[in-house]
Write a structure and sequence with these properties.
This protein is of the alpha/beta class. Helix content is 33%, strand content 23%. It is built from five helices and eight strands, in the order βαβββαβαβαβαβ. It has helices spanning 6-12, 37-40, 57-65, 81-89, 101-110; strands at 4-5, 16-19, 27-28, 30-33, 48-52, 70-73, 93-96, 114-115. Helix 2 (37-40) links the parallel strand 4 (30-33) and strand 5. Helix 3 packs parallel to helix 4. The longest helix has 10 residues, at 101-110. It is globular and about 35 Å long.
């Protein structure tokens, strides 16, 4: 199974790591993309990258419950200071990227990140 460092993921997506900078050298095993947060709550694997266009506190809270390691916020959306604070408190890395969810998923899949399904 191929793992990717979070710093490599950010680089591939031309993204900025805005929270969880102490975890940026951690490895991710799987990618998952969704804008329906209830889909995220069905996941039961470790080392997950969650790609979404939803940029809300609920996104961070859902990742916390689902034990997600890293979130990519797509479509050029910017996280709020409250989101950064909550993500940092929970050890969640958040990356902002200009890529669409589709493009980010494709780039990471092509680079070898495995899907959950």
């Amino acid at each position: 199974m191929k793992h990717m460092k979070i710093t490599n993921i950010a680089s591939l997506l031309g993204g900025d790591i805005v929270s969880g900078k102490t975890q940026q050298e951690n490895h991710i095993s799987f990618g998952f993309a969704a804008d329906l947060l209830s889909d995220v709550l069905t996941l039961d694997v470790e080392g997950v990258l969650f790609i979404t266009g939803l940029c809300t506190l609920q996104t961070i809270r859902t990742a916390e419950v689902a034990e997600i390691d890293c979130i990519v916020i797509a479509r050029g959306k910017k996280v709020s200071p409250a989101m950064v604070e909550l993500a940092n408190r929970n050890g969640i890395v958040v990356i902002e990227t200009e890529c669409s969810v589709y493009k980010a998923s494709g780039i990471l899949y092509e680079a070898g990140l495995k899907p959950i399904y």
